Amino acid sequence: MFTSSEISEIQKLLTPSHKIVIITHYNPDGDAVGSSLGLKHFLKQKGLEADVIVPNDFPKFLKWMPEAKQIIIADYKRKQAGEAIYNADVIFVLDFNASHRSGNLVGPWLEKARAKKILIDHHQQPDAFDYVYSDVTIPATSQMIYHFIQELNEENLVNKDIAECLYTGIMTDTGGFRFRSTSATTHRIVANLIEKGADPAMITSNTWDTNTVSRLHLLALILSRIEVVKDGKVAILWLKREELKEFGFQKGDTEGFVNYGLSIMGTQVAAFFMEDLYDDFIKISFRSKEDVDVNQFSRKYFNGGGHINAAGGKYMKTIEETIVDFKEKIEQEDF
């Protein structure tokens, strides 16, 4: 957590005269959007205005959250996003650990910005910012935003809008409270958010009960050819670009697919490989159980990183070559 002196300094930065911007990572997920909007609504309760900027668009199933439509998508509104970052006095950096994680457009703007930069994130090996709250043991940045509010002694400001956004971020980044990093503290915070107005049934329905026919077709395809290697310990799932186009892929359609591999009895690692829809690289999602560290594995071999049990990567070969390389590399790992 921030030190008491840092909290005092941050409090002095949070004034109506200062322009505040909140930035999250490329390909925003539930925790990225939930933490950003949760913080925005908290600042609003303090009488402060803040712009939320995301590098690119985010899934439709997250757009029900309060004021999600006011988020500035840099890919669509470059001038507005660029000017907001350039003119900012304070920038909150949420749910990513290094400027380049905000993409080729927003990343350089963030690095050059004159604003005081406040990092709140739970990924390993954060870059240096003016103020850093980094804790890899916490399952979601949205939970860290709640802790931040607690440190400011302003839990009384948490309202229904804040509660809904932070609950969504925690729920999605814990896999519905299933992942090992979900703690008793997490559940206590979630209980507080429910008391403040978060409706678990509504949030779950809006966020996860959103299947389309195209998504189910993609899921059926990927499950029909799932492969298990390394004596049943590793599951492999994959999709090619033409298959995405055939079934009318939309952003967010493959969310959670990798978890089906991890649900197979005996598996310790699941890997999902997907050709990018427009560029020639492979997007990779890794998930693992117990102490199997896919973060280090992804960093070592696949230009990625993340958490011990959940990481991503990017590979510049064909999907066939990527899977072959993955099979070779996974055999070298001792688990």
Characterize the structure shown.
- Helices cover 41% and strands 17% of the residues.
- It has 2 domains: 4-208, inorganic pyrophosphatase (n-terminal core), CATH 3.90.1640.10; 213-331, Diaminopimelate Epimerase, Chain A, domain 1.
- It has a 6-stranded parallel beta sheet with strand order 3-2-1-4-5-6, sandwiched between helices.
- The chain is globular, with a radius of gyration of 20 Å.
- The model has no long low-confidence stretch (mean pLDDT 96).
- The longest helix has 16 residues, at 30-45.
- With 335 residues, the chain is α/β, with parallel strands linked by helices.
- The protein is built from 13 helices and 12 strands.
- Residues 19-170 form the DDH domain.
Unreliable stretches: none
Instruction: Write down the overall mean pLDDT.
Output: 96
Q: How does the helix and strand content classify structurally?
A: alpha/beta
> What is the architecture of the largest domain at the second tier of CATH?
Alpha-Beta Complex
Biggest sheet features? 6 strands, parallel
Strand content: 15-25%
User: How many H/I helices?
Assistant: 13
Q: What is the 3D form?
A: globular
Count every beta strand, where a strand is a DSSP E run of 2 or more residues: 12
Please identify the top-level CATH class of the largest domain: Alpha Beta
State the assembly state of the protein chains: single chain
Number of domains: 2
Please write the string of helix (H) and strand (E) elements.
HEHEEHEHEEHHHHHEEHHEEHEEH
Distance separating the two termini: 33 Å
